[in-house]
Amino acid sequence: MVDAAVSFTIEKLGEFVTQQINIRTGVKDGIEWLRDELGYLLISVRAAEAHQQLDHIRRWTESVKEVANQAVIILERFSAQQEEHASHEHGGVLDRMRNFICICKKEANLFDIGKEIQSLNKTILRIKNRRDEYRITDIITATPAVQQRKRTVLRAASFDYKDDVIGFEADYQTLLAQLDNPDPSLGFISIHGMGGLGKSTLASKLYHSSELSHFKSRAWVCVSEDYDITNVLRKIIKCFNRDEQDLLNKMEEGELLRHLREILLDGDHYLAVIDDIWDIEFWKRIKNAFPDKKNGSRVIITTRNKLVAREEFVEEQDGVHVEDVADDYARHAIYNGIGEYFKLLGPNSDSLNLRSLALTTQTASLELEEIKLMYTRFQYLTTQTASLEIEEIKLMYTRFQYLKVLDLTSVHDSKGIPEEIGDLVLLKFLSLMGSPYSREALVIPPSIGKLKRLQTLHASDYGIYVFPKEICELKELRHIIFYGNQGNLNIGSDQTKLQTISEIKHKEWCHIDTNNWTNLHTLVISGEYHGEEESSLESMENLTSLRTLVLVHFGFISTMQPLSSCKHLNKAALWCRIKDVAELSFLPDSITDLTLNLSGSTEDPMPILGSLSNLTSLWLHECGDKLVFGAYTFPCLQFLKIQPAGGLFQLEVDDGALPSLRAFTLYYHYEMAEIPPRLLSLPPAPEFSGHLW
Hints:
Blueprint (H helix, E strand, L loop, with lengths): L1 H18 L5 H24 L6 H32 L6 H41 L2 H6 L2 H4 L6 E2 L13 H11 L7 E6 L6 H9 L9 E7 L5 H12 L4 H5 L3 H14 L3 E8 L2 H8 L10 E6 L2 H7 L6 E3 H10 E4 L2 H8 L10 E4 L8 H6 L6 E4 L6 H10 L5 E3 L21 E3 L10 E2 L12 E3 L6 E2 L12 E3 L3 E2 L13 E6 H4 L12 E5 L7 E2 L12 E10 L13 E8 L14 E5 L8 H4 L7 E7 L2 E4 L9 E6 L4 E5 L9 E4 L6 E2 L2 H4 L13
Parallel strand pairs: 2-5, 2-6, 3-4, 4-5, 7-8, 8-9, 9-10, 10-11, 11-13, 12-14, 13-15, 14-16, 15-17, 17-18, 18-20, 19-20, 20-21, 21-22, 22-23, 23-25, 24-26, 25-27, 26-28
Antiparallel strand pairs: 1-3
Helix pairs in contact: 1-2, 1-3, 2-3, 2-4, 3-4, 9-11
């Protein structure tokens, strides 16, 4: 959001003025003026967030955001140069000479930053003039009555939809899969974007889809900026029950909310579309009327208001942001013969409003001159180009300073990761290159510590990496995903925003204080197996948000009691040895997918595992010679895989056990196993998710 970008910049400008004591008065005054003006503009930006459907307002807020981002680039560069200068302040004669040179460079840098800040301040004045020229303040501060909206308030039936929703087929399929998935919980789907992008059309195509015809109880209501919540509720109720109009007219809001909830509780699974919601308070008041009957009911909302979209849908994968989709189709260029294309654009290609660039496999390589011709303000760059020379990568890093997303996982032939990676100070997502043909480790340079906004650090499946200690400086890091790292990740206990760590060495994990790690939801820990060595899960006790846990080569687990605190744990793959099968009783009932290595144990774990009422997938590795599924156990288990340790194997299934089982796989010689015929008649179980190893 523009709000977040501008707020971040104001904070950085304030910190810079406070910390940089020995800067020229003129430079300091310019930075303070920029900070104050951005603060005043932020008030207008926040008010403008609800009016992004108007093109001139959207363009104006983007111009504020661009100035804010450029200011951050200037400050981050100067700070990085200061750190380099500081490293030469102490030492012998050579260091003192270097220090003298650095002082000269510092003065030159201060002169440059002064010029750049002065240029930004002129841009701020132009932005303020445009706000007045286009009467933006009048629009964003006007009340609904003053604006005299002419929007239709309500329409209870959906319009005829178009079969071809141009540009949204992939998102249609994604949303359809979410709507039709087997999860019985009530599902909310958000479609967000500015006006005219096809949100309602996409929702209508989903609503009329033959794949969703099993929703017999359904409703479509459109809400605009002018609404009466009681009328909206009456329209929804009428869709579900058409014979109550007289009774409904006598009901107030509270009665209508209760009545709608009662109707839905008594009926079948339902599908509802609430189209064009503008107000977050409206959605907060109405959403509680939709009960979760655990029968697969679904609710779709479309909105132009980001706050509404984010109220229920915290993670972006829970909905589709149509504005981003439109950008992909309107601004995302995929070029074959990239150099020839940019040569046609000529030297003024910066005037194009492109944000994304993908280099395809047919772009076998890039020349330096071709990169120099490229538009400089790409925010998203992905490449399937197999080979990039080190100088080409350096130039890409220094030229594309506005990048937020950089995906190089398809680059297999590269000599290293240059220090210039630290110049991409706006980067939020970084996926590094790696070669399937080389076992030589790629060294991640210390300059990665400059990427203060980085949220995701991802690696190629083929690469082996060495991490610098500066990784611990990335306080915004949410996801770090590496499967081939030499030594430590070098993450710190204060990186409490981390949500995904895959993978970390056990020795490093033991030294992390997890007291404040309440955001971590996915954790993969690997270790070196040392026979009878015991490993502790004590640090897991604090991970109250943990949903996925994978332990590989972990030695003996002394006790699993800490896992009982992980009330949201869904998936666990324990590729380790459990000292006592009785410890499995500490697994939380929330477990749905479980992989267990039972090597070294002859005890039957089924009496304990059978009490996991939500378990749907189970893989038992190296189990003993006999397993007994007791009567009426494993009520939800659908997929079962068993790999016996050896010798004759016997599997017994008592009456009422495994009522939901759909697939079964035995990794063993069937002639050496005694298996109930019912299980043998089932199809093989599918491969479990990759994170379960």
